[in-house]
Amino acid sequence: MLFIRTLIIGFFHCLVICNALQCLTNCFYTSNVTTPLLIPAHCNQTTIARFCTVFLQSTGEEGTYTVSFSAWNLSSKISPISIRTCNLFANSLLGNFFLFSIYTGCQDKDDCSRELARNLTNEINKRQYDFRAIWTELAPLFSNSSSILNNSDLSCYDRNETIHQCGSSTQYGLCRISNDIYEKKNTFSCSTLGILNEISVYIHQYDGYSATFDLHCNRSLCNDEATLNSVKGILFKHGVTATLDGRLVDVDIVVNHGSKILISFALMIISFVKSIL
Prior knowledge:
Blueprint: H1 2-17, E1 21-24, E2 27-32, E3 46-49, E4 51-58, E5 64-72, E6 82-91, E7 95-106, H2 112-126, H3 131-142, H4 145-149, E8 155-157, E9 163-165, E10 174-180, E11 185-191, E12 199-206, E13 210-217, H5 225-237, H6 257-276
Helix pairs in contact: 3-5
């Protein structure tokens, strides 16, 4: 019985230790999209972790991106994930702005995040757009001159797809439509939490698991499927999205069978141990 207990403990210990990696961590810097990835000399701290991670964010027209290296500790029970987000917004204070970010991880070898960062940098470098042309096409779909000056007559579709007033002379409002890409479902609403005159597109993709496409606009009844599809068409035409339905990368929804098998195997061992004790 002691041998079996030792074997079980060794098995679970190996699940953690045998998958340990050496990862670059506590590293953050800014670079230009026109130059190859060059990790600064001060980024020399490493740690033992379950997997390595990289975060990159591009600010569009500024032509720069930030890079951050980190790691998940050995006690973490999750696997590397890949998340991409894209945010295009405009308001009376900041003007037009664009942010694109990638957060992902790897666990195939020690220090794998360096090679991963190089690949992601290439993706960022390819995402160079004519933002003025994009906004010129988007602007009529999001707002009109009267809605910018007077928000009291803004009408939006609500969650029941009925029309009601959104905003007033004392409270600024925005029409909102949120599209679940994989589920092919839309949610309609009125938001009164937005910044004055802000209009935006926000795309969030958790590769293989979820993808959403959100619009905030201040033109009456702009949160409808026709506007949604028109915005998706413009972003796809300019290469911001990889698919016409609004995904940032062409990845279909998947099921993580490997995790289920591992959990089932662990539960089977636990049941076996209980039966012999």
